[in-house]
Design brief:
- The chain is mainly beta and 475 residues long.
- The protein folds into 2 domains: 152 residues, Sandwich (Jelly Rolls), CATH 2.60.120.430; 235 residues, Sandwich (Jelly Rolls).
- The protein has 6 helices and 31 strands.
- Strands 1, 2, 3, 8, 13, 16, 17, 18, 19, 20, 24, 27, 30 and 31 form a 14-stranded mixed β-sheet that branches. It has a 5-stranded antiparallel β-sheet with strand order 4-7-14-11-12.
- The structure holds 2-acetamido-2-deoxy-beta-D-glucopyranose (6 copies).
- Its main location: membrane.
């Protein structure tokens, strides 16, 4: 203990450092009202990245009918493995978890799978269906021989007091499993209700996004590294864009910005996208002060037969001053946003903005997004930029994210045993769906591109949320 007396200046700067660290942490900490983290098949609670996953063997666990399930432990875990992936719960019969919901609204549901090999069972042999609140989330699902970790993420609107997750073996003699489950309230502004339908007829709106079941199929940090749940404001994973970028890498430049991101009223909040996503981008490079007439394009494999919510994140970290950025945005070859002028929307550089598009099923198995110059693009300006993309599959007309069979039929496919406990929950939804198909509704939006920037404010209650962001941006 030589340095009991720190020089005064040091103590002072230490204080400032501690204070600014604390305020940085508190700015980015979202605390969900509903926050259920469950470690399945484990007898003890497990902490991952400061988040406590509760054992589902507790008497007050959300797991119902546990006598029909078996806990399983990996006897030979890798020394580097994360604890929650070394235990699983096995379902030989339809079984369910019911999570109490305090606050109605969009909830994020994550299911974690790791098909480990235990002395008495190889989980890669499991095949099963998963239902979430009456939607088919997974059908005939099998992790297969991949020993990697598989995480499935959904956004589900819950207005009842429960989120119910059911596991149904694909057939008698088969079984389902899961290693961990998260059911968390989503930030209020995360899923806005309206998006722009891109189908060739310009200016059509898709309304009712919050009431769709969404499954995240791609979440990309363009031009940047992988962002892990630890570094994301709502524990998401963002992966780099390399494998999806189709245009020549010579045309684009990866950007990294070291300054501060300005989260502002009307733009994207930290929960919509973290600093890590907005601080990196890919831009179309001007050569010799002249506009190069090319698009930058990414292609994402998707399943046919579904609509997709395509969220594109923009943050002008490339311009040297305001007013030098103009570009077009295309989805599946359709002009989705004409002459996006970030400066006029955000009024300041390095301020994030996002747009939600809804892509119709085009049965090509590929979803394509591009950015490219417009006739307003300037030499020495930025010909196109993209910071992030999220692609979310929307439930189809029978309420499924995995095929044409609705939840009631999935349960009925189970040949024997007492499933009557599960049927009433989903029956209502299937009935409702049949009606909804008949009434398939779309609302035609206004022919006013300026309305696009106002999208996020259409969420009820978002105002106060943005207000906070605004204040914290000034702190
Ligand atoms: C699962 O696969 C079988 C065999 O291909 C098929 O008959 C059944 O309809 C599928 N179930 C679901 C829920 O998709
Ligand atoms: C979080 O981000 C920091 C800064 O980029 C990085 O050093 C760290 O490895 C990341 N942590 C995780 C768990 O990804
Ligand atoms: C840019 O200018 C340099 C020198 O003026 C020239 O050698 C080069 O070919 C030009 N590049 C392009 C892509 O036009
Ligand atoms: C960019 O892509 C769109 C849609 O495919 C196309 O109409 C446009 O001509 C392309 N622009 C350039 C510069 O290639
Ligand atoms: C720019 O393009 C728009 C539509 O694509 C067109 O209406 C406008 O006339 C063009 N302007 C110029 C200067 O070419
Ligand atoms: C998704 O399911 C809901 C019923 O919960 C239904 O109203 C909606 O039309 C479905 N979405 C699509 C795109 O068919």
């Amino acid at each position: 203990m030589e340095e009991t007396h720190l020089p005064r200046a040091h103590t002072f700067s230490l204080l400032i450092l501690t204070f600014s660290l604390l305020s940085t942490l508190s700015l980015s900490t979202f605390s969900p009202t509903d926050n259920h983290l469950i470690s399945c098949g484990s007898t003890v609670d497990t902490t991952v990245d400061n988040r406590r996953f509760i054992s589902d063997s507790n008497p007050d666990s959300p797991l119902l009918s546990s006598e029909q399930t078996t806990p399983l432990t990996n006897q030979n875990p890798s020394p580097y493995s994360v604890e929650i992936y070394n235990s699983a719960r096995i379902f030989k019969k339809p079984s369910k978890y019911a999570f109490e919901i305090k606050e109605p609204g969009t909830h994020m549901v994550r299911l974690h799978f790791h098909a480990f090999f235990s002395s008495n069972l190889d989980l890669s042999g499991a095949q099963f269906h998963v239902l979430v609140n009456g939607y088919v989330a997974l059908s005939n699902f099998s992790v297969g021989k991949v020993r990697d970790i598989v995480v499935k993420e959904y956004f589900i609107w819950a207005d009842s007091d429960k989120v119910v997750i059911s596991f149904v073996p694909a057939k008698n003699g088969n079984y389902g499993f899961v290693n961990a489950i998260e059911v968390i309230s989503a930030p209020k502004d995360l899923i806005a209700d309206a998006g722009f339908l891109v189908n060739g007829n310009k200016d059509e709106k898709f309304v009712g996004l919050t009431k769709q079941a969404l499954e995240t199929v791609h979440r990309i940090n363009v031009g940047g590294p992988k962002v892990t749940p630890f570094n994301d404001t709502v524990w998401r994973t963002w992966i780099p864009d390399y494998e999806f970028l189709k245009s020549s890498k010579d045309l684009s430049k990866q950007m990294y910005f070291d300054g501060r991101i300005h989260y502002q009223y009307g733009g994207a909040s930290r929960e919509v996208g973290p600093d890590f996503v907005y601080k990196t981008a890919r831009v179309i490079t001007n050569t010799n002060g002249s506009v190069i007439n090319v698009n930058m394009t990414w292609e994402f494999p998707v399943d046919e037969g579904y609509k997709y919510l395509v969220r594109m994140h923009f943050c002008d970290i490339a311009s040297i001053s305001l007013g030098l950025i103009h570009f077009n945005v295309y989805v599946n070859g359709y002009l989705a946003y004409e002459d996006l002028d970030l400066s006029s929307i955000t009024d300041t550089l390095a301020s994030p903005f996002y747009v939600d598009f809804v892509a119709d099923d085009d049965s090509s198995g590929v979803l394509r997004v591009s950015v490219g110059p417009t006739n307003k693009t300037m030499a020495y300006g930025v010909d196109g930029i993209l910071n992030g993309v999220e692609i979310m599959k929307m439930n189809n007309s029978v309420g499924s994210l995995g095929g044409k069979i609705c939840a009631v039929m999935v349960l009925k496919s189970w040949p024997r045993g007492n499933i009557s406990v599960l049927v009433p929950i989903v029956a209502g939804v299937c009935l409702f769906l049949s009606l909804a198909v008949l009434m398939h509704r779309r609302t035609v939006g206004r022919r006013n591109p300026a309305a696009w920037s106002k999208l996020p404010t259409e969420v009820p209650g978002a105002g106060s949320n943005y207000g906070n962001q605004h204040l914290s941006g000034k702190a």
